[in-house]
Amino acid sequence: MAHFAELNDFNVVRRVLVVHNDITTIDGVEDEQRGIDFLNNLYPDSGRWVQTSYNGNFRGLPAGLESIYEEDKDRFIPYQPAPSWVWDEEFYGWKAPVQPQPAGHVWSEDDLAWVKPSKPFTSWVWDETGRWSPPITYPGGSPEYGGDGKAYDWDEENQQWVLIDE
C-alpha cells in the first residue's frame, strides 16, 4: 500500500490517504505519479499530493496530520510544538529551549519553561510519578489501563469518586 499526504498552500499536511498497490505499480515497480493522478481524479479540488513512507524509508519521518513537507530537503517533519522550539538535525526532532524535560511537566510558551500542569482539584497532590493524584485511588484500578471499564468523576466536595450514569 502506498501512502500519500495532501498538502495545503504552506506545505502542511491536511490528510494522509492510502492507495492500493494495484493502482500505483506497473510491472511490480511503484510509480508515485500514478498515485498522485489517481487521487487528483478522485478528489479534483484537493491540494497537492506527495507520497510518504509509512515506515520512514524515504522523505524523512512518515507524514502525519499537520506535519510539514520541506520541499527543499524533500522530507516530512512533525509540526512545531511551540514557536520557541528549534529543529535539531542530529536528534531529528524539535527541542525545547530548556532541556531536559522534568517528569510530569508540560511546556509553557508564556514562561519559556517546563511547568507542572494546573492542579485539577485542591485535594490532589503531586506524587512521585510526576503527576497530580487524588487522595483516594481510582475505583477498579487505573483508568489508563482500563480500570473496571466504568467511568467515574471526582467529587471534590465529598472527596470521593462517583460513578457516571450510563
Question: What key attributes describe this structure?
Answer:
166 residues, mainly beta, 3 domains, three-stranded antiparallel sheet, two-stranded antiparallel sheet, 2 helices, 15 strands
How are the elements arranged and paired?
Blueprint: E1 2-7, E2 13-19, H1 21-24, E3 25-26, E4 29-30, H2 32-42, E5 48-52, E6 68-70, E7 75-77, E8 86-88, E9 93-95, E10 106-108, E11 113-115, E12 125-126, E13 132-133, E14 152-155, E15 160-163
Antiparallel strand pairs: 1-2, 1-5, 3-4, 6-7, 8-9, 10-11, 12-13, 14-15
Describe this structure in words.
The chain has three domains: 2-77, no CATH class; 86-115, no CATH class; 133-163, no CATH class. Strand 14 and strand 15 (160-163) form a beta hairpin. The protein is mostly beta strands and 166 residues long. The mean pLDDT is 91. It has two helices and 15 strands. It has a three-stranded antiparallel beta sheet. A two-stranded antiparallel sheet has the order 3-4. The protein has a two-stranded antiparallel sheet with strand order 6-7. 9% of the residues lie in helices and 31% in strands. The two termini are 41 Å apart.
Please sum up the structure shown.
The chain has helices at 21-24, 32-42, and strands at 2-7, 13-19, 25-26, 29-30, 48-52, 68-70, 75-77, 86-88, 93-95, 106-108, 113-115, 125-126, 132-133, 152-155, 160-163. By secondary structure, the protein is mainly beta.
